[in-house]
């Protein structure tokens, strides 16, 4: 009788321990770093970080919300994701569960032609807030370059003038992210993305590189995307530099609706809803171009990107994928 009672109590205690253990193992968290075959997960419960092994090309990215059960990682549904296409046609997920895309540029090295425009369109098409961070205000070439950027984009997206070297302008950027935003720094190699984060969070000590004096290009020192929490609120993802921001799953009509600089045409709508701003009658954009209200060079850039998008739309794989999404 006594032995039976003790055995039942021990069994009940064992079941409770197993239940508690399973509850601890199945924790929710967010991926804060990706190393190819492993990720760092920061848990909601205690803020601690644990490395979990994953398969190479698993599809997980920094910013993913996940559930961890022992060594098994399950990705939860994404609120948003941002993708880009490289020069070879490969598609890369830049980040997940973002609401801000911060495009970092500077006068040395300059961004590739169309980089800023494609990034803004990609952000808007995915319901993200694009921002432009003009870094390196300490360089002699900054003033002229910043004037050009502000003239082109200030009416379209928030612009920030910054210096990772002196800390100039970083308080305004910190205040912006303190409203609870999660953003990602993107831009060509050498524009100072990691340097900006090092200034905002000195304890990070992210590796940075020098600019080549001959090619005026940076060396890629950031090889891993990492997510960091800011002291006053908000989160930032630092990503490796890249020069290609080809559009992914963005239609010609979405490009026409989201291209920066065409906002002025919203006051006088195009005659046709499916206007691509080419030769259509009653196009508000082409009228503003002829009146020199929209810069001719901006319009030429738009037509160049439109040609790329229409070529992509003509691919059978693209049409099939878009058809499946509509179902």
What's the short story on this structure?
By secondary structure, the chain is an alpha/beta fold.
Describe this structure as you would to a colleague.
Helix content is 32%, strand content 20%. With 327 residues, it is an alpha/beta fold. It folds into three domains: 24-77, OB fold (Dihydrolipoamide Acetyltransferase, E2P); 81-238, Rossmann fold; 252-326, Ribonucleotide Reductase Protein R1, domain 1. The strands form three sheets. It has a six-stranded mixed beta sheet with strand order 10-9-8-11-13-12, with helices on both faces. The model is unreliable at 1-24, 211-221 and 323-327 (pLDDT under 50).
Portion of residues within helices: 25-40%
CATH architecture of the largest domain: 3-Layer(aba) Sandwich
Order of helices and strands: HEEEEEEEEHEHEHEHEEHHHH
Strand content: 15-25%
Outline the biggest β-sheet.
Answer: 6 strands, mixed
Low-pLDDT stretches? 1-24, 211-221, 323-327
Mean pLDDT comes to 85
Which structural category do the helix and sheet elements fall into? alpha/beta
What is the overall silhouette? globular
What is the CATH topology descriptor of the largest domain? Answer: Rossmann fold
The CATH superfamily of the largest domain is: P-loop containing nucleotide triphosphate hydrolases
Number of helical regions: 9
Beta strands, count:
13
Total domains, how many?
3
- Give me the side-by-side strand order of the main sheet: 10-9-8-11-13-12
The end-to-end distance, rounded to whole angstroms, is 65 Å
């Amino acid at each position: 009788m006594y032995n039976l009672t003790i055995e039942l109590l021990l069994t009940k205690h064992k079941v409770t321990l197993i239940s508690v253990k399973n509850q601890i193992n199945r924790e929710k968290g967010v991926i804060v770093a990706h190393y190819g075959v492993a990720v760092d997960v920061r848990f909601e419960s205690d803020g601690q970080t644990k490395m979990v092994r994953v398969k190479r090309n698993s599809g997980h990215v920094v910013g993913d919300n996940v559930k961890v059960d022992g060594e098994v990682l399950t990705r939860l549904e994404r609120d948003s994701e941002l993708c880009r296409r490289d020069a070879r046609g490969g598609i890369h997920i830049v980040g997940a569960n973002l609401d801000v895309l911060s495009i970092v540029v500077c006068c040395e090295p300059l961004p590739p032609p169309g980089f800023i425009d494609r990034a803004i369109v990609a952000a808007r098409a995915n319901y993200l807030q694009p921002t432009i961070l003009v870094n390196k205000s300490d360089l002699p070439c900054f003033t002229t370059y910043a004037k050009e950027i502000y003239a082109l984009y200030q009416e379209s997206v928030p612009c920030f003038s910054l210096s990772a070297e002196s800390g100039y302008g970083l308080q305004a950027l910190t205040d912006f992210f303190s409203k609870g935003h999660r953003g990602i720094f993107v831009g060509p190699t050498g524009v100072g993305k990691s340097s900006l984060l090092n200034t905002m969070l000195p304890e990070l000590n992210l590796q940075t590189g020098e600019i080549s004096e001959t090619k005026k290009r940076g060396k890629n020192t950031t090889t891993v995307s990492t997510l960091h929490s800011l002291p006053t609120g908000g989160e930032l993802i630092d990503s490796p530099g890249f020069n290609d921001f080809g559009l992914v799953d963005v239609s010609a009509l979405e490009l026409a609706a989201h291209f920066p600089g065409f906002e002025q045409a919203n006051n006088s709508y195009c005659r046709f809803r499916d206007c691509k701003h080419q030769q259509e009658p009653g196009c508000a954009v082409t009228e503003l171009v002829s009146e020199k209200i929209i810069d001719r060079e901006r319009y030429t850039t738009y037509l160049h990107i439109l040609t790329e998008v229409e070529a992509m739309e003509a691919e059978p794989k693209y049409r099939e994928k878009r058809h499946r999404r509509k179902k």
